[in-house]
Design brief:
By secondary structure, this protein is α+β, with helices and mostly antiparallel strands. It has ten helices and ten strands. The strands form two sheets. Strands 1, 2, 3, 4, 5 and 6 form a six-stranded mixed β-sheet that branches. Strands 8-9-7-10 form a four-stranded antiparallel β-sheet. Bound molecules: L-homoserine. It holds the Pfam family GHMP_kinases_N.
């Protein structure tokens, strides 16, 4: 038998919560089709939507490597599976593309084997995949991809993941400026030391954002989504970042920022129409300055 699993794109950091906050969108997302095989071991028979950029070699693909970690942990390396991977969003876009695939793969194998443990038990394996993809095993993409909605990584050691509520009627516009920003490099350029004054600003904003999510207070969410630590550095890698922010805010966005490590940017809005208009205008702007773009409204 086989199984078909979808896992969504995710926006990590949510502007102020570097490595500790993330949320899932309803689309786009990646798909994994997994089938049991007679021979032990993992094979990848097909990858679509990656422009030939991802390795079919199971030792080099984050999906198969994470699945193997999982099989080893439950002492089931005797199992044979074949994986088909269908990428439905650009790689290296800051939308948690590798996370979505990895989470879909792990959920597929867990389900095929009838493992009824809590899905969050898969997180450490998914984090291994992130470590392989960019050198650091952060959880702010994989946790929301696996659990849905908004998620807080309260602690990494020990891992403590908290699902957060969010207001109904919160829309997200996402635009992907087609420039290359590898997460590994986007992590290397951020400052290692921060000022106490900036730390105070940052944790005030994180607390404000989380409060806004609980209180369903979209204004509070919007004014809390400011980042004085990471965005000032990473925004340099994104064409016309501050101009795009101004455009989004003028069009009625509640907030605007970098999705994960970029180059995708996102805006929260109170309705679908505003989100669509922002996506359109920003895409148009990027095309005018001769940068390809993809837009999503979720
Ligand atoms: N929190 C991570 C970072 C997310 O900003 O580097 C990467 O997608």
């Amino acid at each position: 038998g086989g199984i078909h699993v979808f896992a969504p794109a995710t926006v990590a950091n949510v502007v102020c919560g570097f490595d500790v906050l993330g949320f899932a969108v309803n689309e786009p997302g990646d798909e994994v089709i997994m089938r049991m095989a007679n021979k032990p071991g993992i094979t990848i028979s097909k990858i679509t939507g990656d422009d030939g950029r991802l390795p079919l070699n199971p030792a080099k693909n984050t999906v198969s490597v994470s699945v193997e970690h999982y099989l080893r942990s439950i002492d089931r390396l005797d199992v044979g599976v074949d994986i088909e991977l269908h990428k439905k969003m650009p790689i290296g876009s800051g939308l948690g593309s590798s996370s979505a695939s990895t989470v879909a793969g792990l959920f597929a194998i867990k389900t095929l084997l009838g493992d009824e443990s809590d899905p969050s038990a898969l997180l450490p394996f998914a984090m291994k995949g992130e470590e392989m993809a960019c050198g650091h095993g952060h959880a702010d993409n994989v946790a929301p991809a696996l659990l849905g909605g908004f998620v807080l990584i309260r602690s990494y050691e020990p891992l403590d993941v908290v699902r957060l509520p969010h207001p109904a009627g919160l829309w997200c516009a996402i635009v992907f400026p087609d420039v290359d920003v590898p997460t590994r490099e986007a992590r290397q350029i951020i400052r290692k030391n921060i000022q106490m004054k900036d730390a105070v600003t940052q944790w005030g904003n994180i607390a404000g954002l989380v409060s806004g999510l609980f209180m369903q207070d979209i204004d509070l969410i919007g004014r809390s989504m400011k980042d004085v630590l990471v965005e000032p550095v990473r925004s340099m890698l994104i064409p016309d970042f501050y101009m795009m922010r101004q455009m989004a805010m003028d069009l009625g966005a509640v907030s605007f920022g970098i999705s994960g490590s970029g180059p995708s940017v996102f805006a929260f809005t109170r309705d679908e129409e505003t989100a669509k208009r922002i996506t359109q205008k920003l895409q148009q702007h990027l095309t005018n300055i001769k940068i390809g773009s993809n837009g999503y409204v979720s």
